[in-house]
Write a structure and sequence with these properties.
The protein is an alpha/beta fold. Helix 8 crosses helix 9 and helix 15 packs antiparallel against helix 16. Helix content is 27%, strand content 22%. Strands 4-3-2-1-5-7-9 form a seven-stranded parallel beta sheet.
Length: 445
């Protein structure tokens, strides 16, 4: 049977597709921009017919209707491996729970612990050989495909075809149902203009980057500021080996700063596992051999990433205590995001010859009431999650400077961190350090 005939035989309506879900089933959604935003509302409409259906998402773009439609959680229990803004809204209402994970371990967690279930993912249109490309969200999708009791793809012709790499597509022979969507554009993450503080932090980061460095940037204003400065710099032959590919990588490539010529392997290719950004980055990735979509057990594998020299990892944090413990995923007990690949790349960067793992944060945070508090704190807020343990923290940067915590005692760490705290908060931090027994009278005041 030809692949086009097979396509027509497996083509169903959205109602028929979600109709396979039974009470007690596990349903695994796609990842990031390739979450099944078309099928999700159809499944939610079946709420009153179903009991105890567990749905698992990853950074769902918008508000997952299976979570929003059931305040009792008797019909749908929605969980997320990494929070989006919508997942956070549901969590605050008691309608979503986070699943802790190291991103590089995702495929192995799925193999060992994830129960088989119905899998729904958004994909790019099928090619002439019968393959549906995972588009901008490779991640650990291929492992979910292997765990599918029923494999459902929703086809979106606005999704770019992202070349591999590895594990970037599923063949029609492994697909049970095909749904054609309304072809809305993929979710876009608008560029957040960096603040003056972001730019000041980024300037300190730039001092640590050399020609030929391999760059991993997280999402947010500060990493964007670093990317913008790199694109406008005189640095040469930057490389890309990252978890997420964002707009600033396109800027670096088009400026001629990012060539990948000095990478230890995958030379000339921008390696990533998912992309989030504006239409610019999606257009750039379509059929572009300068980029390589790879599964997360390749991109985030510390043995792989650290084999590059001068691997520089730049990520955000919510707060850091005087011992060097980094919280990047919660504000006290309120969950904000997830561990993601931050720990993966902090580890890999330090193991890389000449590498640097960098945690960035502004010295102050402002509450909704306008109150300003230090992000460098005596101890983490009660319930705050340790994303990067003190033993693994390398560089910490605020707008007031950069410090290297490796090999430093608790007393030395406190002194270094207070030196880059906001000047208005330093005296209070010194008092706290004295009370905690990690401050000497001979330390600088």
């Amino acid at each position: 049977m030809g692949v086009m005939n097979e396509y027509q035989e497996k083509l169903v309506t959205p109602e028929e597709a979600v109709g396979v879900v039974k009470s007690g089933d596990k349903v695994h959604y796609g990842h990031f921009a390739m979450s099944p935003t078309f099928l999700d509302p159809y499944l939610a409409k079946r709420r009153d017919e179903l009991q105890d259906v567990k749905v698992y998402g990853v950074t769902y773009p918008g508000l997952a209707q299976v979570g929003a439609c059931d305040e009792t959680r008797d019909h749908f229990m929605y969980h997320s491996w990494h929070f989006s803004g919508g997942d956070r809204i549901l969590h605050d209402k008691g309608l979503c729970n986070y699943i802790p994970m190291l991103y590089q371990e995702g495929p192995e967690l799925i193999r060992r612990y994830v129960e088989p279930g119905v899998v729904m993912i958004k994909v790019a249109p099928m090619d002439e050989r019968g393959y549906f490309n995972f588009s901008v969200s490779n991640s650990d999708t291929y492992c979910f495909v292997k765990k599918a009791t029923t494999m459902i793809v929703e086809v979106c012709d606005k999704a770019p075809c992202c070349l591999g790499g590895n594990n970037e597509a599923v063949h029609i022979s492994d697909v049970d149902m095909i749904v054609e969507t309304d072809n809305k554009p993929l979710i876009q993450v608008p560029f957040i203009p960096p603040t003056d503080v972001d730019k000041a932090v980024a300037a300190h980061v730039m001092e640590l980057i050399e020609d030929g460095s391999v760059i991993q940037l997280g999402i947010g204003g500060m990493p964007n500021a670093v990317g913008a400065m790199l694109a406008q710099s005189d640095l040469k032959d930057m490389g890309c080996h990252t978890e997420v590919l964002v707009d600033s990588y396109v800027d670096m490539f088009e400026a001629g700063v990012m060539t990948g010529r000095r990478k230890a392997f995958d030379r000339g290719r921008m390696v990533y596992t998912f992309a989030l950004g504006s239409q610019k980055v999606y257009d750039f990735l379509h059929m572009n051999r300068a980029a390589a979509s790879c599964s997360v057990d390749y991109t985030n594998n510390a043995n792989v990433a650290s084999a590059h020299e001068k691997l520089v990892s730049v990520n955000n944090a919510i707060e850091i205590d005087l011992y060097g413990q980094v919280c990047s995923e919660s504000s006290g007990i309120r969950h904000i995001t997830g561990t993601g690949g931050q720990l993966d790349f902090i580890n890999a960067a330090f193991r890389s010859r000449g590498g640097k793992g960098i945690v960035c944060l502004s010295s102050l945070k402002e509450s909704k009431k306008g109150e300003k508090k230090s992000r460098i704190v005596p101890t983490l807020s009660p319930g705050g999650i340790v994303t990067v343990p003190r033993t693994m923290v390398h560089y910490v940067i605020t707008e007031y400077g950069a410090v290297d915590l490796k090999g430093k005692s608790t007393c030395e760490r406190a002194e270094l961190l207070i030196s880059i705290a906001h000047p208005d908060t330093r005296d209070e931090l010194i008092k706290a350090a004295e009370q905690q027994g990690i401050w000497r009278c001979s330390n600088k005041h």
